[in-house]
Amino acid sequence: MEQYLTMLAKPIHSYRPYWAKRFGASPILPMSRAEMDALGWDSCDIILVSGDCYIDHPSFGVALVGRLLEAQGFRVGIIAQPDWQNASAFKALGKPNLYFGVTAGNMDSMVNRYTADRKIRSDDAYTPDAAPNKRPDRAVLVYSQRCREAYSDVPLVIGSIEASLRRIAHYDYWSDKVRRSILVDSKADILLYGNAERALIELSHRLARGEKVTDIQDIRGTAFLRKKIPQGWSEIESTKLDRPGAVEKHVDPYEIKMGKADASCATDDTSSSLAPLPLASEGNSITHVVAMPISRKPKADRAKQVVRLPDYEAVAQNPVLYAHASRVLHLEANPGNARALVQKHGDREVWLNPPPIPLTTKEMDYVYDMPYARKPHPAYGDAKVPAWEMIRFSVNIMRGCFGGCTFCSITEHEGRIIQSRSEASILKEVEEIRDKVDGFTGVISDLGGPTANMYRIACKSEAIEKSCRKMSCVYPGICENLNTDHTALIQLYRKARAIKGIKKILIGSGVRYDLAVKSPEYVKELVQHHVGGYLKIAPEHSEENVLSKMMKPGMEAYDEFKAMFEKFSAEAGKKQYLIPYFIAAHPGTTDQDMLNLALWLKKYDFKLDQVQTFTPTPMAMATAMYHSGKNPLRKVTVDSENVPIPKAGNVRKLHKAFIRYHDPNNWPMLREALQKMGRADLIGNGKQHLIPAWQPLSNKPITTVRGEQLERTVRPRRVVEGKRKYS
To answer: What is the model's pLDDT at position 411?
Structure first.
């Protein structure tokens, strides 16, 4: 695959550096004029604005992008978490010579700031001391406006996951409406989506050569505004690719017609390719097979095809069209065959070039081998940044995910093709953590990425991978063309834990267990050497009809992995536990589904502290389900499958309560629900009951001892026929 990618894209490490390369690498990228003066800079070529604080580590987007541009020779300044009330903070580093690069940070600002119930969070993991309210709602829009106010003539480039997932008309959960492309609302010159290293480097060098940003419209992984479709392009209506209305039977060009030969047949040229062929004699007549003439069009140049999505105004008013547009966008996601997309917003066209070509292993090493300081900027002093504390001893070994889970944004942002670092680069970073990061005790907290075990896993065939249009390589089952060999990852684990000074290598990323069971050797290696007592995995649900809307495997794969986990733990003489994660109120979920999940949890004695309630994030397939009530995993029509959507606040709370059936605070709600569902038989004080018939005097959470939640030793009160009675 890498040979194919290299042929299509210029390697990111092969550009001639910009003249400012002579200044060399900075100990840490500047956030003030004083720091610029110390470096001998009179100005910045590029200024990056971020909603996160600045931590010089490759897990933080602004640091990765900043160091990458610095390696290309550009002087890069950082404006992190600026005061957005006016433009003065955006003038702190002066006027950039090339452009402002605006990002919301590692998370969408709305997801970062609000809970699934639309309540403001009390902390921010990407801020010193977790201080809240250090970034605005819809940060990309606000920062873009302030950059324009500060220097109106400076090109404005937007990116990050917030911009990436809002690049077309998208449903916004927090305002409960379909919003325009963020490109339109931000008034940016260009949007970079996905992991944008390749696009960012090319764009920066072309701007440095004097090209106008409005003339740069041929870079993959970018979006911009156009007035009309340029000459030489053929336009395809998305509704012809995937009809959103009544489905008509397609004419089969190979169809054969049965009929009786007439007198005219005798005069036909028997040498013609359309001459009727005798089939059988019927008295004095002959029945023929008449082949229909085939008219083939010349093979279209996909590089000059653009797929027109329904207009913003149409998808904003018609949820079925919205679901259709979402489906088409996801089908046009493979860099090997994706076409450009266009969507009209008023009198302007939002144009999306095909997705970026994934990075090769050599390019991935180039990105992660930069001279990162691996610590927060000194301006933050001794403040603790929770996001940094979480990953300071971890190593990112790959990016991308071919799982395609409908509720997750990783695939939409990073793509389905796995991009892996070399073993040497990863081991070098482990050694750097050992030698450079303060407080290291010998334990690496994670060797992972979006998933723990997709390292170096790819399609067996380059040709098949280039032409594939599946949304997942592992759903409804693992594709026969997927190479599931975990050997490279096993070898990496062994070499990493053999490094001098390394006591333990833990795996903190989520394990794709349906993939892991294809390699028992990997499961054994993982369980016996890289689990610290608990291993997190994510079945997400127990019911097949819900899992099918998530594109997650059935519980058979979980059971198989659990058996392996327990077997290999026992062989190693260790007591270890699986910690499953589940989602409440996902599209497609009914009250009965949640009850079944609660019974499953009780059967296996799981009492979960953390429960994730489904949050509709922009561009996710599950979000299209939530908004439209349709299933975009299949062709979307007016009469196609309707998906039950738990939208009401009390329903979402109930679904969450089912997962936390053991919490006394949830018992009153669950009793009422069970009675309405005709399952009052599950209320009682026996082992067969889901919840008790009594209520503690205090509704505080039950005491937890060694992971086991114990009943409070207070005088209980029983609930009989809806009335409270003291025992």
So the answer is: 85
Phi then psi for 154, rounded to 5 degrees?
-90, 130
Burial of 227 (0-12, 13-18, 19+ CB in 10 A): exposed
User: Which pLDDT score is estimated for 298?
Assistant: 54
* Gap between the Cα atoms of 305 and 568, Å rounded: 53
pLDDT recorded at residue 364 = 98
Give kind and range of the element (H or E) at residue 77: strand 76-80
- What residues pair up with 340 in beta bridges, in sequence order? 306
The terminus-to-terminus CA distance of the chain in angstroms comes to 71
Each residue's pLDDT tens digit, 395-425: 999 999 999 999 998 888 899 999 999 999 9
> And the tokens for 560?
């198989």
Helix (H, G, I), strand (E, B) or coil at 185: helix
- pTM (2 d.p.): 0.87
**d(Cα 620, Cα 159) in Å, to the nearest integer?**
18
Tokens, residue 236: 């395809």
Residue segments in the chain with a per-residue pLDDT below the cut of 70: 1-7, 243-300, 698-727
DSSP state of 642: B
d(CA 43, CA 77): 9
CB atoms within 10 A of CB 266: 8
> Over the stretch 305-323, which tens digit does the pLDDT of each residue have?
999 999 999 999 999 999 9
What is the structure's pLDDT at 240?
84
Query: Would you report the helix, strand and coil content of the chain in percent, each value rounded to 5?
Result: 35, 15, 50
Query: Domain extents for the chain?
Result: 2-218, 393-597+613-649, 662-727
Instruction: Give yes or no for a contact between 362 and 11, defined as CB atoms under 8 angstroms apart.
Output: yes
Diameter over CA atoms, the chain: 103
CATH of domain 2-218: 3.40.50.2300
Residues 56 and 375: beta-carbon distance below 8 Å: yes
CA distance 172 to 436: 42
Q: How far is residue 690's CA from residue 482's CA, in Å, rounded to a whole number?
A: 42
Asked: is 393-597+613-649 a CATH 3.10.20.30 domain? The reply is no
79, 91 Cβ separation under 8 angstroms: no
- Please tell me the distance from the alpha carbon of residue 382 to that of residue 471, in angstroms, as a whole number: 45
Q: Are strands 222-226 and 348-352 parallel, antiparallel or unpaired?
A: antiparallel
Q: What is the SS3 assignment for 121-180?
A: CCCCCCCHHHCCCCCCCCHHHHHHHHHHHHCCCCCEEECHHHHHCCCCCEEECCCCEEEC
Residue with tokens 């490109």: 183
Residues whose CB falls within 8 Å of the CB of residue 433, separated by 6 or more in sequence, listed in order: 374, 392, 393, 395, 440, 444
